[in-house]
Design a protein that fits this description.
Blueprint: H1 22-30, H2 41-44, E1 49-54, E2 60-67, H3 73-89, E3 99-107, E4 115-121, E5 127-134, H4 137-149, E6 156-159, E7 162-166, E8 171-172, H5 173-179, H6 189-206, E9 216-221, E10 228-233, H7 257-266, H8 269-289, H9 291-302, H10 309-323, H11 334-348
Antiparallel strand pairs: 1-2, 2-3, 3-4, 4-5, 5-7, 6-7, 8-9, 9-10
Helix pairs in contact: 4-9, 6-7, 6-8, 9-11, 10-11
Length: 360
């Protein structure tokens, strides 16, 4: 993951929210992403009080616990349980009667200003979360592309201008860097480095930007010999909006530089190039399995103005130079650029591996 003289991307201004087009809404209905649900984002905005939420060490977090009018709470709790049932068990309320809403939190940080709902099992105190956000077309495209092109599956629901997202569990990247990276003998360094290369490639191909360390999580799975590691994006706000090529490469963010150095220490360029090619091959397999659905999504995305045209043109020039393909210069949308990225790696499969995105 070399620093080729290009500086890490600077923080961008707040991205505007894009409305859901008629075509995208038709796609969501077709694949049962749109449902009639009893809670809207605006309904949750009608809270009466806020209490700052602290972590286990008593330090302030970015969240506030919100309190609603006592006459509203019983109906709102039932409605939130129903939303959870639609998210998890296709609306079957018979299997969620023992659950209760423990807390609703609100965050003013970031573009989506989300609500986080904590659901608890009354029998065993097991807890889960889901999020209620303002619906934004680019975020929806980002989640759906993650669902189709990554090894991860995501559930979400849309109704009108409300977006419901399931919780993505894992160790936040910034916490992993501070407390886990190179400090846990049970985590084999080469597996961490391998997943970093693969995650870098997934974000780049599907144009998911702003993957700073606090926007992704590490998921650890114990194996019979050593733990397996996967990195999952958990913020899809910056899907295909920026015009800078490096904005879609996690390796170029200053927050992630400890991870870049870690890769440089533990991976040879040839090995990193191998892992990059492995992920490209898997992306093409996923795209093939979901070809009809992905084709419809990219068609709708190509007709949605998800970024100013000057950003599209800037990005297409960067990608044309990177992949050595002038076909990019005909693209007029972010959806068309993702399609070209998939075509670029399809053409490269079978060619000699060139170690471009590798540690120095």
């Amino acid at each position: 993951m070399p620093d080729d003289g290009t500086h890490f991307p600077l923080p961008t201004k707040r991205k505007p929210s894009f409305p859901i087009s008629a075509d995208l809404r038709g796609y969501l209905r077709r694949y049962k992403r749109e449902r009639e649900i009893p809670v809207t984002y605006e309904r949750l905005r009608a809270f009466q009080e806020v209490i700052p939420l602290t972590d286990e060490a008593g330090k302030p977090t970015l969240w506030d616990t919100v309190i609603y009018d006592s006459t509203e709470m019983p109906a709102l709790n039932d409605a939130l349980k129903e939303v959870y049932a639609w998210l998890k068990v296709d609306g079957d309320l018979s299997v969620v009667s023992h659950l209760y809403v423990d807390r609703v939190d609100f965050c003013t940080f970031g573009n989506s200003t989300p609500f986080r709902v904590r659901i608890v099992n009354a029998y065993n105190d097991n807890q889960d979360y889901f999020y209620v956000k303002k619906a934004d077309a680019s975020r929806i495209y980002g989640i759906e592309l993650e669902h189709l092109l990554s090894p991860n599956r995501l559930n979400f629901l849309v109704q009108g201008d409300t977006l419901i997202e399931e919780h993505i569990a894992g160790i936040p990247g910034d916490m992993f860097i501070t407390h886990w990276l190179g400090k846990r003998p049970e985590l084999k360094a080469i597996r961490v480095a391998k997943e970093l290369v693969k995650f870098n490639e997934r974000c780049f191909v599907r144009l998911l930007g702003d993957m700073r360390s606090y926007n992704f999580v590490f998921v650890l799975t114990p194996d019979f010999e050593e733990a397996q590691i996967r990195i999952r994006a958990m913020d899809f706000d910056q899907q295909s909006y920026d015009g800078r090529k490096n904005f879609y490469l996690p390796q170029f963010f200053k927050d992630n530089y400890p991870l870049v150095r870690f890769c440089s220490k533990h991976l040879r360029p040839e090995t990193a190039a191998q892992y990059r090619r492995e992920e490209q091959t898997l992306i093409l397999h996923r795209a093939s399995l979901a070809s009809e659905r992905l084709g419809l999504l990219l068609h709708d995305m190509a007709h949605d103005p998800l970024a100013p045209i000057e950003k599209v043109h800037s990005l297409r020039e960067g990608l044309a130079e990177f992949y050595h393909r002038t076909d990019y210069l005909r693209c007029e949308s972010m959806g068309a650029l993702i399609r070209q990225n998939l075509e670029s790696i399809r053409r490269d499969i079978g060619k000699p591996v060139v170690p471009e995105l590798v540690p120095e």
